[in-house]
Structures are given as C-alpha cells and as structure tokens.
Design goal:
The complex is a heterodimer. By secondary structure, chain A is mainly beta. Chain A is globular, with a radius of gyration of 11 Å. In chain A, strand 2 and strand 3 form a beta hairpin. Chain B has one helix and eleven strands. In chain B, strand 4 and strand 5 form a beta hairpin. Chain B is mainly β. Chain B is about 0% helix and about 35% strand. Classes of the chains: A mainly beta, B mainly beta. Chains A and B meet through strand 2 of A and strand 2 and strand 7 of B.
Chain lengths: ~55, ~220
C-alpha cells in the first residue's frame, strides 16, 4: 500500500516498509511511502492499495 | 436573527485534540471515547498584606498552570487517523509514533539528551448545530449556538489507567501554561456565538503548527 503525506509539514513515524520490516520514516509534504500493510496516522492518505489487487483490476 | 442558548449544556460535547507539528498538525476526534471533561483554567492566586493603617494591600501572584482532565475508554495503542477515538497511549509516551500493526509505543531512550514532550491543543465545543463534527471547525449554521474552550501548549502530564470497575478507563491530564514564554499570548480562551454563520460564527482553528499562536 502506498501513502502520501498530505500535511504541510514533515511527518515522522514508524511503519513496516514494503518488505515487512519496521523502520522509521521521515516524510516531506507530498512524499509517499510504501508499506506491506495499513498505516494509521492522521496526515497520511492512502493513494494505492495492495499491488495484488491492482493486477487483478 | 439569533439562536437561543439552551438552559444548560448537557450530556454531549465535541472534543478535538491536535498534536503540534511544525508545518502541519495531527488532529483527532475524541468525544466518542470520552466520558467526562474537567477544565481547570489557570488560577490567579494572591493574598492580602497587612499595612500599618490596618488595611490590606493585595499582593498578586503569577497566574498558575491550567489543566484539562479527560476520562476516556481507550481500546488500542494505534495513533489512529483523523477519526481517532482509540486512545492516547502513544501520544503520552511521545517519540516517533508507530503506525502499522502490531503497534508498540516508543521505547528508545537518549541518555543525556533532552527530548521534547509532545504538545497538544485541546478544543471542547458545546453546540446545537447538527452540522458540527469537530470542535476545531468553524460554526456554519445560522441561528445555531455554541460555546468553545480551547487550550494550547498542553502537555500530557498524567495518564493513569484503571480496570477497577470492570472496564478499562484512563484518566488523562493535559497541563498548559497560562501564558506563552514571551508573555504576549494567553494560552487558553473561551468563545461563544448565538448565530453560528457569517461574521458571527466561531472561526475555525488553524493547523496547530505554531505552538503558541492562535493564528
């Protein structure tokens, strides 16, 4: 899943990356992050669901 | 025209908490996990000093800190999205928030290094405006009435959880200074309107990206 920082500031948070490894991210406004699971943090907007779903569509 | 205030504000309120972040804030709704609210505005103490005429001279002391205490029913450690109502575990602990399951609060320490505590702006609104969904938002409906208290620069100084009544309840205290460091800004305010649209509306609070500014 891909998420975008829709705030005007830098978001710092911990999350699993696309390979399932938990690490710290620092995301500038409009930058995106990929994760293998759902992210829940105000200011992050989901812009892409799981890749498997995309290929099925 | 103007609306009519009720005889008393009862039962329900909107509670919105924003975590300070430069450039943009993290806002969460908290009414659905909250049972009680206690607002302790900063005391302004003082005492009189006897003078030789037998009179009294008032000696004013500096205004003290204020406190907002919420009793909440948290369900998990997720920091949630905009519609939070989950809990304030990570917000209290501080550090970098965990956003993917399984969630863990921050456990890293930095020996000898000063780490800033999270700061919050807490807004509580009582209103009869059915369109209102956030205590931070502007009122928008003609003749609607509303009362709002807002405090900024709040630190969570106490976060105590209890299961003594057979339900997990957490008492969370937000403490805020009466003034900002420069002494130019009062850190809390009350607002009300008897006509919630147009020029008489209670305005929206801006993003909490400046920790001691109302604009």
């Amino acid at each position: 899943m891909e998420y975008k920082n829709v705030t005007k500031g830098i978001l710092k948070f911990r999350a699993h990356d696309s390979k399932g490894i938990k690490k710290e991210f620092e995301l500038k406004p409009n930058d995106t992050v990929e994760s293998d699971r759902e992210l829940s943090l105000g200011g992050l907007e989901k812009i892409k669901s799981k890749k498997i779903k995309e290929s099925e569509e | 025209m103007a609306g009519t205030f009720p005889q008393a504000w009862e039962e329900v309120a909107l509670v919105t908490i924003s975590q300070f972040a430069s450039g943009g804030d993290l806002t969460m709704q908290a009414a659905a996990m909250t049972e009680t609210i206690d607002i302790g505005e900063p005391d302004y103490p003082g005492e009189s000093v006897n003078n030789l005429a037998g009179g009294r001279i008032w000696k004013q002391s500096p205004q003290e800190d204020g406190e907002i205490t919420l009793e909440i029913y948290p369900t998990n450690a997720s920091s949630g999205d905009g519609e939070n109502n989950l809990g304030l575990f990570q917000q209290f602990v501080g550090g970098t928030q965990d956003t993917t399951e399984p969630i863990a609060s921050f456990t890293t320490g930095y020996p000898g290094v000063q780490v800033s505590r999270n700061r919050f702006r807490v807004a509580i609104m009582w209103t009869d405006d059915a369109a209102q969904t956030s205590a931070e938002a502007a009122t928008t409906t003609a003749d609607a009435v509303a009362l709002r208290f807002v405090a900024m620069g709040c630190r969570i100084t106490s976060h105590k959880s209890a299961f003594t009544d057979g339900i997990l309840k957490t008492t969370v205290t937000f403490k805020f200074p009466a003034m900002n460091k420069a002494g130019a800004v009062k850190m809390s305010k009350w607002e009300s309107t008897n006509d919630g649209d147009g020029a008489q509306a209670i305005p929206a609070l801006p993003d909490y990206d400046d920790d001691d500014s109302w604009s």
